[in-house]
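Hello,

Our lab assistant flagged a job as stuck in the queue for most of the afternoon. It eventually completed. Since we weren't sure the result was trustworthy after the delay, we are filing this so someone can double-check. Below is the sequence as submitted and the structure that was eventually returned. Let us know if re-running is recommended.
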Amino acid sequence: MLRLRELQQDFAAAVLDGAQNGFERHIQAAGLSGVRRLQIYRNNTLLNLTASLRATYPVICRLVGDSFFDYAAAQYIAAYPSRSGDLEEFGGDFARFLESFAPAADLVYLPDVARLEWIYHQIFYAAAHPPLDLTALAQVPAEQQGDLQFQLHPAARLLESAYPILRIWQANQADYAGDAAVDLKAGGIRLLALRRDNFEIEFQPLPVGEFSLLSALEQGCTFAIACEQAMTAQPDVDLSACFSRHVLQGAIASFH
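-- returned structure --
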C-alpha cells in the first residue's frame, strides 16, 4: 500500500502531467472507470488553471486570440505546474515561458507585456503598509543618512522594457476608445506601478535617473549609492525632488 504522500504525488502526476503511472488502479470505479475519473480531474484542472491565467493576463489573451492563448496555457500548465493552493499565485513564470515559446517568437514584446500584467496582478493583491515614518526619518543624523536603506511599498513595482508596453496595454483595455495603433519603434519605457488607496493601479513613466534611484533602493543599495547611480544615469536628475515625490505618494514606505 502506498503511503499518503506517495499517493498524493502519484495522483498529482497523473492529473497534471497526464502520467501513465497506473494510478487508476487505486480508484474505485463505482459507475465510472478509474481512467475516466482521472480524465475528469485533468479536464477540470486544465480549465480552472487556464481560467486563472485568462484572469491574470487579459491583454495577452486579447493580443493572441482565445485559441492561441488556450494552447499556450496548456503548454505552460504542463511546464510550470501550480505549486500553491492559492490560484492567485499561479502564473508568475508566464513571461519566462513566453520568451522560449516558439509559436510566439515573432511577438517579441509579448513577454514584457506579460510582466506588466503580472505586476498589476501582484500589486493589486499586495499587503497594505503604513506610510513612511517622516518623524523617525528626520531624527536620523545627517552623517548617517547616506547609509540608510529604503524599501518600496509592497504595492509598488518597477519595470523596464525596450518596447512601448504601456501603450500596448492601454490600447488593449476593454473600455479603450482611442487609436489602437501601436508603433513598436516608438522606443522603450521605464515604469513605476503603484496601487492607490482606492485600489486603482497607476503606471508612471519615469526618466532614467529617477528609475535608477528607485531600482537601486529596491535592490537594497544604500541611499548614497542609489543617488550615485541615479546621477550616473542622468547627471541633471533632481534627487531631492524625485525622492520627496515618491515618499509623499507612498512608493517609498520604510527604511532601516
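-- support follow-up --
The delay was a queue issue, not a problem with the job. The result is valid. Residues 92 and 181 are 28 Å apart (CA to CA). Strands lie at 150-152, 156-161, 189-195, 201-205, 252-255.
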